[in-house]
Amino acid sequence: MNILLTGATGYIGRRLLPVLLQQGHQVICCVRDRHRFSTSGLPATQISVIEVDFLDHGSLAALPDSIDAAYYLIHSMSATTSAFDDLEKRAAQNFVKALQGKRVRQVIYLSGIANADHLSKHLSSRKNVEEILQSGEHPLTTLRAGIIVGSGSASFEIIRDLVEKLPVMVAPKWLNTPTQPIAVRDVITCLTGVLFHRNTYDQAFDIGGPNVLTYRQMLQIFARVRGLKRTILTVPVMTPRLSSYWLYFVTSTSYQLAVNLVNSMKVETICADQRLMELLDLQPVSYEDAVRMAFARIANQDIQSSWKDAQSSDVLDRGISELVQVPEYGCLHDRRTRIITDPKKVFDRIWSIGGDTGWYYGNWLWNLRGFLDKLVGGVGLRRGRRSATQLVAGDALDFWRVLYANQEEKRLLLYAEMKLPGEAWLEFRISDQELVQTATFRPLGLLGRLYWLVLLPFHGPIFGGMIRRIASA
Fold first, then answer.
1. Which of 370, 366, 190 is nearest to 285 (CA)?
2. Which residue, 300, 38, 261, 303, is CA-closest to 154?
3. SS3 460
4. Where are the domains of the chain?
């Protein structure tokens, strides 16, 4: 069957794709930038990739006529704008219009549990999108999930940051809000289980694991799994703004996403029933088992997707293809070379840069730069990397974004997503027996040039030390 997969670069989309392929489907992946989407290791004969922006109605002409089912996995909660609900509304409306006249047997939408009387902006938006999709001419199956737990998921990584960094937590009272977390494995099973299942047409189902837990209990169970002792104190008064800053500075989340998460965490997200689990004869795993399975994947370097890779700065909306050609004119450069004797070992060090490995020299300075970036609303240095052994275009790498990663060419090109008065690239390239490391900065006005001059005294020790350590492999 021909399956349209929107949100193919997102956390769920990346995990759903290989399962659909294993089931023998032909999958049409909708992406805004094909350069940020890697199909390496997947059967090329079963995949087609089209560039579609559901906020741009004109681009929807690229959708094929032959579609048997469509997954709608488009969400904008981590967008830098607070008007994400308007973006989600427009995208859903354009999606419904784009499918008009096509012989689609089923549309499947992953939404959020919305059983409370008062919903957050995020959950209200998800409910509104569901109503828009229902207005279409094709049968809709809606799955409503609460907290999704898995390696690389936003909730898992945020809880991980809190538990592993804070022996004592002074937290807001919303930590006592109950929720019903579900393992990402069970979410994927539900998404594939309802495909062409006629008893799920024009139906909405809540999906959750077997445990109803407060966020405090989730933190405590997580700590127990990690063998850590943690003390959690809740305070009765902590404004949403303070709560958002608390999450923003302690975890790797963006401030806008922290705001949306805090507002949603104040709402109970408990399943009204478990009809779908009974229909699919599925026994969902417990929260504790979901955490253990996530760490097993991390230990095996088998993280298929990360929410951090889907999140990016507004600049990247132009597309990686617009940034992969590093500019020369009007730019400031720091170019360093080093003769090397073992190119393979040197490039292995380049391929492992960032995350837990660090930047080989002056890591405290890199951490300071990340902290300063957080102070002005940037992504900071805490995003790390999805995998310690793999890099593909589109991956987040601390406060950089991977634009180009080719092991055969021995070239890695990064683009800065930190807050800057300009744009910055960092490139590593090995040619014959020479390592070339180039930092490029395109300043924005006088402030950009002053920024470069202020940091110029640090370039020698930081960039010089980095290439020296890398070359020493």
1. 190
2. 261
3. helix
4. 2-299, 314-471
Residue 269 DSSP class: B
pLDDT tier for residue 238 given thresholds of 50, 70 and 90: low
Distances (CA, A) of 291 to 181, 247, 388: 11, 20, 20
Residues 170, 176, 177: CA angle, nearest 5 degrees: 130
Average pLDDT over residues 373-391: 77
Residue from 122, 118, 140, 272 nearest 194 by CA: 140
State how far the Cα of 159 lies from the Cα of 395, in Å rounded to an integer.
21
> In the structure, what pLDDT confidence band is assigned to residue 310 with cuts at 50, 70 and 90?
low
Spacing of C-alpha 336 from chain mean position: 33
57 touches 94 (CB < 8 A): yes
For the domain spanning 2-299, the CATH number is 3.40.50.720
Q: Do residues 99 and 136 make contact, with C-beta atoms less than 8 angstroms apart?
A: yes
pLDDT of residue 305: 61
What mean pLDDT is predicted for residues 433-461?
A: 90
Structural contact between residues 401 and 414, judged by C-beta atoms closer than 8 angstroms? yes
Helix, strand, coil shares of the chain, percent, nearest 5, are 40, 20, 40
pLDDT the model gives residue 256: 67
pLDDT range class, residue 183, cuts 50, 70, 90? very high
Q: pLDDT tens, 396-406? A: 888 888 888 88
- CATH number for domain 314-471, candidates 3.30.70.60, 2.40.10.220, 3.40.50.11890, 3.30.530.20: 3.30.530.20
* Residue at 24: amino acid letter: G
User: DSSP 3-state assignment of 222?
Assistant: helix
Per-residue confidence (pLDDT) for residue 164, from 0 to 100: 84
Using alpha carbons only, what angle is made at residue 64 by residues 58 and 67, rounded to the nearest 5 degrees? 130
CA distance 294 to 109: 24
Q: How far apart are CA 383 and CA 257, in angstroms?
A: 14
Q: Is 390 exposed, middle or buried (0-12, 13-18, 19+ CB in 10 A)?
A: middle
* Confidence (pTM): 0.77
